[in-house]
Amino acid sequence: MRCSKELLKQAAGENTIFLLKLKGTSEERRAMIKEIQADPISGKFVHIDFIRVTRGHKLQVSMPIELVGDSVGVRHGGRVDFVTREVSLEILPREMFDKLTVDISDLEVGEHVRVGAVADQLPPSARILDDENRVVVVIEAPRAVALEEAEVEEEVAEEAVIAETAEPELIRKGKGEEEGGGE
């Protein structure tokens, strides 16, 4: 079990296909991990659910995404917001791979990459199960610049409200003032 723990710590650990030997028989089956339950204190495995892998049948897996490259937007003060860290796929077992990579080198501040952009890394028989318009990564403006822009927009909105209420005020004499003015 020690080898399995080390294997599971790797990025592709959960998408690894294992050869399971059934105790007391000579049967062997290929399987992949579906779910792992671990003791929260000791970290030891309590239960592992496997899904049988059958040749020619597609599997539904979660594929991790790795960002690579040094973003131009980050060099200009932007910040990387890694929104979607894995994508659900339907793929044949023999076509499995470790991870999807997203190159962020050319991203400027305000630009983003969507899930559909990683489709070219998939084999022809595989397909993405998630919404292809879902954002994977975005280069955000620095917080100080974003706050300044928000303050400027707020000031412009306040000036517009003041301009709308700058009409002259009509003052009328009350009933008591009209009577007192006649004497």
Quick synopsis:
With 183 residues, this protein is an alpha+beta fold. The protein is built from four helices and ten strands; from the N terminus they run αββββαββββββαα. The chain has helices spanning 2-9, 72-75, 143-164, 175-181; strands spanning 17-21, 28-38, 45-52, 59-68, 79-82, 86-91, 100-103, 112-114, 127-128, 135-140.
Spatial strand arrangement across the major sheet: 7-4-6-9
Task: Name the overall outline.
Answer: elongated
From the alpha carbons, calculate the radius of gyration and give it in angstroms.
31 Å
Individual helix count: 4
Number of extended strands: 10
The CATH class of the largest domain, by name, is Mainly Beta
Low-confidence stretches: none
Topology:
Elements: H1 2-9, E1 17-21, E2 28-38, E3 45-52, E4 59-68, H2 72-75, E5 79-82, E6 86-91, E7 100-103, E8 112-114, E9 127-128, E10 135-140, H3 143-164, H4 175-181
Parallel strand pairs: 4-7
Antiparallel strand pairs: 1-2, 2-3, 4-6, 5-10, 6-9, 8-10
